[in-house]
Structure formats: structure tokens, C-alpha cells
Design brief:
single chain; four-stranded antiparallel β-sheet; alpha+beta
């Protein structure tokens, strides 16, 4: 029977590990060994990792790979990717090479506006609140000058603050809806600091606003927080070529392939069950680069999927067409990313990833991440509309199965030779291993 624990956060790292090992494992020494084998031998580096989060006991490794040959706006990039799923890096690399000889990826940042809100309850005359906001707006800006000074030097800051009446959705509910430009930082701490000052100013100034009754002066701030929905922080990425230029080994009839590809994208535009998996494939590429560069993939995921639902139904992020003999494939995607602050200056591999990418600005990183997502989507749709998704995926996945069964080098050679000309499935590989070992 597992027990509750008091004061876990106050225990030393060793004591945390010992408690976990003794509480949850029949062989605590084996558990402790597994935990400690993932520690870094460089104690200073290990301490750095320990302090990223709370209650740390060890490191959880994910592989970091490179997808080379990404030609984006005329510049070649080797893209670092952190992901655990087989075939993702291979697919991105294959797409990058394919499009590098067909003009590459064209990417444009359409906007980089970010949003934060002060959510508050006001019970009173709406016209009085509007007058109050008009007279107080300039003070909202001036009271945050100490916070925004450095950001303004870099060309960013608060763009605008609006009062929004949301009482149709919720009784007495209003917002201060603020927009921000945070340049090369993701800007979460900056935005939240500004919002908390807005809330403080809002409450203080309300107490002194002569038009308000005593009840109206009592504005209740519920919370002040940035939004990860950034529909005005958008990057557009596209590839295009003449239909006949799509021809390659598995595309012997480029016109038929292009038409089938466009149809597959159109299905994802109208069918949410397909759209979710379609967009998940895009996120395979996006998340992998977001992770490698120390950005917040959960925030990106939440914002992207909200954007995919912006018209009331969940739909494809990407689009395709054939027009005047030219095949085009593109998407608009919201990406609030940073190249300074957070882990970007702390995590050694994040710093290395950004170095590999040529120390990009946040706008350049948005373009690289979007191109990787579109490349991943192209690879998936190319497979789905030609050979099927499983052939390539299982070829990559076979290594995981062989590792699972701890096969020897000799066994691996025999097994891989056999499945060069036979269909790969988990069951088929397992059966072959069992027969081989009899």
C-alpha cells in the first residue's frame, strides 16, 4: 500500500530518491541505479538541470537529431529536432532535400503581436466604466514604464490596451485586452508583469474616480495573465513547383499525385477526425524544433490547435492547390517563439541548437519552425497518397522492436535482411525473433 508523504519538497535529492525507490519498487537498489545512471557526471551541469524544475530526481533523455538541407528563403539550414517518434527526423530530412531542388521553402512573418488580459468583475454603469477607462488609459502606460523601458529599447513594448465588455458571455465580466511586441523574447514574464501592474493601477484609480459610486469603485480583478492564443502572431510558409517537377522515384505520374495530394488536404479541411491527425503530423515537426530551441511546446500546441478551430470547426492548418500547371502547398501558423531569455541562455544544448541555426532572430526561428512543420506534413501526405504510411514508419520502428527484445548484432543482421522483402509489423518481427531463437 503506497503512503502519502509530508514535506517531500524539503527532502534532499538523495532522500527523495530513496523514498520513491522504497515506496514504489520491490527492488529499491535497482530503481536507484536506473535513476542515477541518467545523472550527468559533470556536477555543475547536473545542478543546472536540477534547478530547471522542482523535486528533481534525474534527467529524462530524448534523442536530438538533425534534419539537413532545409532551403528557407534562399538560406540552407540544418534543423535540430528533439523527438522520440521514429521516422520524424527522416521524413523532415527527405522533404527538405526534395524541396531544396525545387526552389525551397518561402516563409514570411505576417505579424508578431502577442496578447495579455486582465479579467475583472465590475457591477455598475457601463458608460461610467468606459469614461473611467478613457481617463485612466494613459496612466496604465505610464505606470508600466519601468517594466517596458528595456523592451522599448529593443523596439518592443505595449502596443495597445482596450476595454472589452464581455457581459453577454458572463454577467459583470470585463477585460483589459492588451497587445504586445516582445521582439526576440517569447515575453511571458514581461507580459505578465505588465498585466499585474495594469490590475494594480485599475483598482487604485477606481477608488479615486469621482463618477463611481462606492460599490462601483470596488472593481474585482479575477486574474491577470497572457494568452497563448496568438492569432496575430502568424508565419506563412509555402512550397510550389510545376506539376511535372514533382516526379521522382515513387511519383511516376506527377499529375495524378498532385490531384490526389490536393484531395487529401481538402479532406483534412472538411473532416475534423482526419484534421486532428493531419495537424498532429505538422506538430511532429514544429514541436521537435520548439523543444530543441528551448521554447514552450505546450503553449505552441494550445495556440495552434485553437487557431485550427478559429472558424468554428477544427480544420487543416495546411492547404494545397493546382493552378495553371503549378502545384502549391502552404500554411499559416501562429508561433510565439523566443531566442533570448528562458532556457535559451541556460541549457547548453539549446544554445548549441540556436548556434547550428545561425543564431536566428525570433522571426527567423518562426520561419524555420513553420517550414519544418510543412515539410513533415508533405512527407506524411506523400506517403499516405503513394506507398502508405506504414512502410517507411515500420522500417524506422524496427530498431525499437529489436532493442525491446535485446537482439544481438548477428540476430539484427538476419532480421533486417529478412524484412527487406517482407512486410514489417510488430507481430511479424516478434514471431521471426522467436522462431530464430528456437
Amino acid at each position: 500500500m503506497n503512503n502519502a508523504v509530508a514535506g517531500f519538497s524539503k527532502l534532499s535529492k538523495e532522500d527523495k530518491i530513496n523514498w520513491i525507490a522504497n515506496e514504489y519498487f520491490t527492488n529499491p537498489l535497482d530503481a536507484i541505479q536506473i535513476i542515477k545512471q541518467y545523472w550527468n557526471s559533470d556536477l555543475k551541469l547536473q545542478q543546472l538541470h536540477d534547478e530547471f524544475i522542482e523535486n528533481t530526481i534525474t534527467n529524462f533523455y530524448l534523442p536530438m537529431g538533425i534534419a539537413p538541407n532545409f532551403l528557407i528563403n534562399g538560406t540552407y539550414y540544418s534543423v535540430p529536432m528533439v523527438v522520440e517518434e521514429s521516422s520524424v527526423v527522416a521524413a523532415a530530412s527527405k522533404s527538405a532535400k526534395f524541396w531544396s531542388t525545387r526552389g525551397g521553402f518561402k516563409a514570411t512573418v505576417l505579424n508578431s503581436e502577442k496578447i495579455g488580459q486582465v479579467h475583472f468583475i465590475y457591477k455598475g454603469d457601463v458608460q461610467k466604466l468606459e469614461r473611467f477607462f478613457d481617463t485612466t488609459k494613459s496612466k496604465l502606460f505610464s505606470d508600466t514604464e519601468s517594466i517596458t523601458k528595456n523592451m522599448q529599447k529593443r523596439g518592443g513594448g505595449i502596443l495597445d490596451i482596450e476595454l472589452r465588455n464581455k457581459t453577454n458571455e458572463l454577467e459583470n465580466y470585463f477585460q483589459l485586452h492588451a497587445t504586445f511586441e516582445t521582439k526576440d523574447s517569447m515575453g511571458a514574464n514581461f507580459i505578465n508583469s505588465c498585466l499585474e501592474q495594469f490590475a494594480k493601477t485599475l483598482k487604485e484609480e477606481a477608488k479615486n474616480f469621482s463618477d463611481f459610486s462606492e460599490d462601483e469603485k470596488n472593481i474585482q480583478v479575477v486574474m491577470s495573465i497572457l494568452s497563448n492564443y496568438v492569432p496575430n502572431c502568424i508565419v506563412r510558409v509555402e512550397v510550389s513547383c510545376k506539376v511535372e517537377e514533382l516526379a521522382e522515384k515513387n511519383i511516376t505520374n506527377p499529375q495524378e499525385f498532385a490531384e490526389k495530394f490536393v484531395q487529401a488536404v481538402t479532406i483534412a479541411e472538411v473532416e475534423p477526425y482526419r484534421a486532428v491527425t493531419h495537424n498532429k503530423g505538422i506538430m511532429n515537426g514544429i514541436d521537435a524544433v520548439v523543444l530543441a530551441t528551448g521554447n514552450d511546446f505546450r503553449a505552441v500546441e494550445a495556440g495552434v490547435h485553437a487557431y485550427a478551430s478559429k472558424n468554428g470547426t477544427y480544420s487543416s492548418l495546411s492547404h494545397a492547390k493546382i493552378e495553371s500547371g503549378v502545384f502549391s502547398f502552404w500554411m499559416d501558423v501562429p508561433l510565439a517563439l523566443g531566442t533570448v531569455g528562458g532556457l535559451t541562455s541556460l541549457h547548453p544544448l539549446v544554445k548549441m541548437a540556436l548556434e547550428i541555426l545561425g543564431k536566428p532572430s525570433s522571426h527567423q526561428l518562426m520561419q524555420i519552425v513553420a517550414a519544418t512543420g510543412l515539410a513533415q506534413n508533405f512527407a506524411a501526405l506523400r506517403s499516405l497518397t503513394t506507398t502508405g504510411i506504414q512502410e517507411g514508419h515500420m522500417k524506422m520502428h524496427i530498431n525499437n522492436i529489436l532493442n525491446q527484445f535485446q537482439t544481438t548484432e548477428e540476430e539484427r543482421t538476419i532480421i533486417k535482411k529478412h524484412f527487406e522483402n517482407n512486410t514489417i509489423s510488430h507481430a511479424a518481427v516478434v514471431e521471426f525473433i522467436e522462431n530464430l531463437r528456437k
